[in-house]
Amino acid sequence: MPALMEEGRAKVNLTLRVVGRRVDGYHDIESVVAFANCADRLSLSPGSGLNLNTTGPLAQACGEASDNLVIKAAQLLRARVPDLKLGDFILDKVLPVAAGIGGGSADAAAALRLLAQLNGIELDDPRLIEVARLTGADVPVCLASNACVMTGVGETLMPLSLPKMPCVMVNPRVPVATADVFKALGLRNGQLLVGATDVFRGTAWPEAGASLEDWVEALAAEHNDLEAPAMRIQPVIGEVIAALNATNGAWLARMSGSGATCFAIYENTADAQRAAQKIQLDHPGWWVHAGILS
Fold first, then answer.
1. Rounded Cα–Cα distance for residues 165 and 105 (Å)
2. Residue 221 and which of 1, 123, 130, 275 are 20 to 30 A apart at CA?
3. pLDDT tens profile 16-75
4. How many domains does one find in the chain?
5. Contact at 8 Å (CB) between 104 and 136?
């Protein structure tokens, strides 16, 4: 049987509001999530064992295969599905790690889609959904890889209809641990960051068919609550946002997730391409991608 292939698309948090911290220590969030047209690639060759080999320009950043979320997701699914067919995974790693774009989560989600395909499991199978949640907070949203509003600790997803958004994504090649950023946010267990009225109010996002301009206006009214604490940990994030804002045609620049990747939205792909070229020229050590969010 030939190898099966899937992509692990980069996740971008267009907004990220931290509602509060639960008594169990987990943080409740509300985030508008889009997905980019840059991705890791994962293949699965059916076999009797479970193995992972990593290739690609950022393979060295992945660490030990045994610690990879691809293996964790597969092992969790094997524990719930009798006689689960497994095999050899090969991960072509092109997305930066610990970067706020869900690279590891996207890889784990791709692994679950591949195993589902190999074993005839539907993507809405409760066992698959449970494994996604147990593997990591961003894995459920990456499993579908569709634009949505993500709430709770990442388990509740409400689909959104986004226009195609020309963008530039930039990572200064500095890893940022999500746990460190939430620690720097400084919420106590059981503490709300917003008022109770705000929790239930929510945000009214543009309806299906709304223009890019309408969406940028709505997004600009929100923010990313993790941006400030992430900047305290890695001040270079401020430099990245400033570099994006300095390009011609940048409508909105912001950090994604817990950083350090930042993005800007542009009116058209030509502006985005020119902006990416300028940033790459000015900062040759940074990871830069010009593409589309949707």
1. 22
2. 275
3. 999 999 999 999 999 999 999 999 999 999 999 999 999 999 999 998 988 999 999 999
4. 2
5. yes
DSSP 57-117: TTGGGG--GGGSHHHHHHHHHHTTSTT--EEEEEEE--SPSSSSS-HHHHHHHHHHHHHHH
Q: Are residues 114 and 248 in the same domain?
A: no
Q: Do 24 and 110 share a domain, yes or no?
A: yes
Torsion of CA 211, 220, 14, 269, to 10 degrees: 50
pLDDT digits (tens, 9 = 90+) for 108-165: 999 999 999 999 999 999 999 999 999 999 999 999 999 999 999 999 999 999 999 9
State which residues form the domain around 148.
Answer: 4-159
Q: What is the pLDDT of residues 189-236, one digit of tens each?
A: 999 876 655 554 567 899 999 999 999 999 999 999 999 999 999 999
- Based on the domain organization, do 57 and 145 belong to the same domain? yes
Sign of the CA dihedral running 65, 70, 73, 74: negative
Alpha-carbon torsion 103, 108, 113, 115, what sign? positive
Q: Hey, which residues does 9 pair with through a beta bridge?
A: 39
Q: For the CA atoms of the chain, what is the radius of gyration?
A: 19
Residue type, 227: E
